[in-house]
C-alpha cells in the first residue's frame, strides 16, 4: 500500500544557500512522524514543501499518489483548507477575529455556512478545553490559550494530515505537554497523520517515528537529537 504522503529527493534552495539536499520521507495514514535536528537544518523548509506551501526546486511531493508540486497555487491552497491542517509555532491567529471566528475560518473558506461553521468551531474549542474563550480575541489570551485555539483551527476540517511546526516552541513545559497531548489524542481518534517539526527530543518522544535532519540531509545515524525510531 502506498504511503499517504511522501517526499522524494526533495531539494530546496534559498538563492545560493541550500536548505534541503535530496530528502526522502514517507508518512502513512494515522502515523505521527517527528522531524528533528538543530536550528537551520531545513526542518521547517521540509514541512513547507510537504504541505505545498513551497514548491521544491527538485524532487516530488506526492499526496494520495498525486504529485502536488504540479498543482496550481490555488489548488494547493484549497488542499490546505480541506485535507491538510497547518499549525505554526506562534499560532498566527487573526487578531481582529474572536476565537470561534478564527477556528471557523477554514470552514467558511471551504464554503460552509456561517452558522454551521461557528457550531463546528465551538465544538472544537470545547475539545481543546478553551470553549470559554469563544468570544475573546487573541490579544486577551495567554500564549497557551492562543495555541490551543490555533490547534482547534488546524483540526476543524478534520484534515488527513496535520503539519505542526514547533507547536510548543513558545510555550512553557506544562502547556506544551497539554497541547501535544491534545494533538496526539485527536490524531489517534481520527486517524490523522502528523508531521511534527521540533528541535526538542521531549517533543519528538510523542511521535511514532523520528527522522533527523542535519545540513539539509537525513542523518543516517539518527543521532542528531536522539535515536531514530
Automatic annotation (TrEMBL):
InterPro entries: AAA+_ATPase, ABC_transporter-like_ATP-bd, ABC_transpr_LolD-like, MacB-like_ATP-bd, P-loop_NTPase
Residue intervals of the ABC transporter domain: 5-229
SMART domains, per the entry: AAA
Superkingdom, natural source: Bacteria
The entry's keywords: ATP-binding, Nucleotide-binding, Transport
GO CC field: plasma membrane
Coiled coil: none
Alphabetical list of Pfam families matching this protein: ABC_tran
Tagged with keyword Disulfide bond: no
GO molecular function, one term: ATP binding
Keyword Transport attributed: yes
Protein name from the UniProt record: ABC transporter ATP-binding protein
Organism: Paractinoplanes tereljensis
